[in-house]
Amino acid sequence: MQTSSFVTTLFSTTHIVVLLSASCLLLCLYALKNALGLAPRRVKLRGPSGFPLVGNLFQMRAGHARSLAEWTKVYGGMFRYGLGEREAVIINTYADMNKTLIQQGAAFQSRPEFKLWHGAFSKALDPDAPATMGTSKFSEQINKYRRLLTAQTSAAKLPSFNHFLARRYVRLVGLLDQSASTGVAQDLGFHFWTTTVGISAEMLFGQRFDEEIIRLIADVNIQAFRQRTLATPIHDYIPLVAIGEQLAIACASPIRTILRHLRLSKWLDSIHEAEKHAKQLRDAEVGYCKKFLEDLHERLDAGDSTPSQLGDLLRTIDDGTLTPNEELCLATTLVTSGMSTGTGLTWLVSYLAAHPEMQEKAFRAIQKVYGAEVPDPLDTDRVEYVKALGLEAGRYFATVRLGFPRETYDDAVVDGVLVPKGVLVVYNSYQINRDPQRYDLPEEFVPERWMDGHYGRTDVKQPKIGVPHLNHGAGRRVCMGVPNVNKVVYGNLVLLLHFFKLERAPLNSAAREAVFPRLRAVGEASLEMHPIDDQVSVCDSQAVPLAAGVKLTVRDPNALSRWLAEGYRELDQWNCPNPTTTPGNLRK
C-alpha cells in the first residue's frame, strides 16, 4: 500500500512538473514568436515569399515602386506580404481599389500606427498629444473632425480666402522674376513649396506670415513626412530589435562596447539620431502651431473678422466643442496640406523646362482665353490645358507613392478572400496610376488624356466618374483638400507659363548651395525627371525630387514690370480686409 501510494504521488508530481515545463516552454515560444515579430497568415492571398523574421521587409527597403511593380506582374491586383510582425495586403489596380476603398469603404477606413511616427514623433512631447487627423485610427472623433472641416475645405468656401492666394501669387512671380534676372539656372523648389505652404498656413490661421516662418514650416513638414515611410525603420516591424534597442539604451556603455567590437555601433547611433530628429521636428511643429492658435484666439477675442479656416470654424461652434488638443490636431493636420502640392509642382515645372513644346502649347491656350491680358490665377480651370497639366502631374509623378496606409476596421471579403480586421492595407498609388486598364500610354506624360471629354484615356471619351488618380487617396479617408490643391496648382502654373519661358540647365555652385530643402542637393535630376530614378530616396512615402536647374526667361519684361508694379491689384478680392497685410509690403 505504501509503495502504491508513493508511486501515485511520484506519478502525479512528475505529471505536474511536465505540465509546468510544457507550459513554460509554450509561453517562452509564444514570447519568442512575439519578440521575433513573425507576421500571421490570416489572409489567404498569394504573395512573394519572404525570409524568416523579416518577411519581405528588406525587399521593400530596396525601393517601393519597383519592388511592388515586379510583384504585381506575378501576383496580380491584390497580394499578401509580410513586414516583420505585420501582415499586409497591397492593392495595385484601379479595379481592386474600387472593390476595397470604395465599395467597402467602412471596412477600410482606419489607419495603422507606427512606432516612429506615432511614438517618437507624434507623442514626443506629450503621451496624450494628438497625431494628425489623416494618420489617426478611425474613431467617432475623426468623424467629428471631418464634419467640422467639411464646410471649411469645400470648393464653395475657397473664394473667401482669395486674398491670401493673391498675395502669395504676386510674391511667387516676384521670386521668379528675381531668378530670371540672374541669367543662370536656379532650383525652384523654394519658390513653389513656400508658395503652397504659405497659402495653406495663411488660409488656416487668417494671418500673413513672414519669410522665415514659412521657410520653417515648409522645411519641417517636408522632413516630417519622411517619418511616415513604409518598411523603415526596422524596429517598427521587428519587436526583438525594439527590445534590443531599449536594452542598449538602459545599458548604454557595456552594450555599446560590444556593438563597437561587432562593428554595429553606427546602427545604434543611427536609431538614436532618427528618433532624436523626429522629436525635434515634432517640437518645432507643435511650437509654432500652438503660437499661431494663441494669436488666432487673441484676434477672435478682439473681434477680428478676417476669413480663415480655423477662425471661421471657431466662430460657428460653441465654446468647449473643441479641446486645446483637438484644435492642435486640426492645426497640425491642415498646416501641412500645401506640402504635397509644392512637391508636385516642383516635379512638374522641372519636367516642363525640358519640354518647350508643352510650354508653348500652354502659352497659346492661355492667350486663346485671355488675349493680351494677364490670366487671373483665381479664375480656376478656364484654361483646359493648364488644368490638364496639373492632373497629369498628379497621375504621372504620384508624389504620395503608397498613399496613406489603411488598416481594416472590420472584416472584409474581397473576391471570396477574407481580409480580417486589423490588417495593414497599402494602396499602391504609383502602380494604380499606371494601371493599363484605367490609362492608355501609362508610362507617358500625356495631358491630353484629361481634355475634350477624355478622362484618363486618349483613345476613348468617357464620363468623369471616380477620382482621376490616387495621389490624394479615395474612399472614406480621401484628402479633404483636393479642391484647394487643384486651385493652387492651376494658379501657380497659369502665371508661370504666361510670364516665363523655362529651360533646363546645370546648377552652378552658388545655386546648389541655395537648393531647398538641403536634402535635395545630394544630386541633380536628369532632364527626363524620371519619377523613380530622380527622387531623393526610393523608400520615402513622399517622392521628393532631386535638385533641378531651371533657367527662366521673361517673355515680355515690360508687361511683367507693369503687372508687378500695379497690375496685381486687378486680382479678385485683393482689397479684402486683412489687418496683417498691406499692398505696400507685398513684395518685401
Describe this structure in words.
Mean pLDDT is 86; it is low at 29-36 and 578-588. The longest helix is centred in the middle third of the chain and has 37 residues, at 265-301. The protein has 588 residues and is mainly alpha-helical. A four-stranded mixed β-sheet has the order 1-2-6-3. Helix 9 packs across helix 12 (265-301). It starts with a helix and ends in a 23-residue tail after the last helix. Helix content is 50%, strand content 6%. A hairpin with a 2-residue loop joins strand 4 and strand 5 (417-419). It has helices at 2-36, 57-61, 64-75, 94-102, 115-121, 140-153, 162-182, 189-205, 211-225, 239-250, 252-261, 265-301, 309-316, 324-334, 337-352, 356-370, 384-397, 429-432, 482-499, 509-513, 557-565, and strands at residues 78-83, 86-91, 406-407, 412-414, 417-419, 424-427, 500-504, 550-554. It has 21 helices and eight strands. It is globular. The protein has a domain at 141-239 and 275-585: Cytochrome p450 (Orthogonal Bundle), CATH 1.10.630.
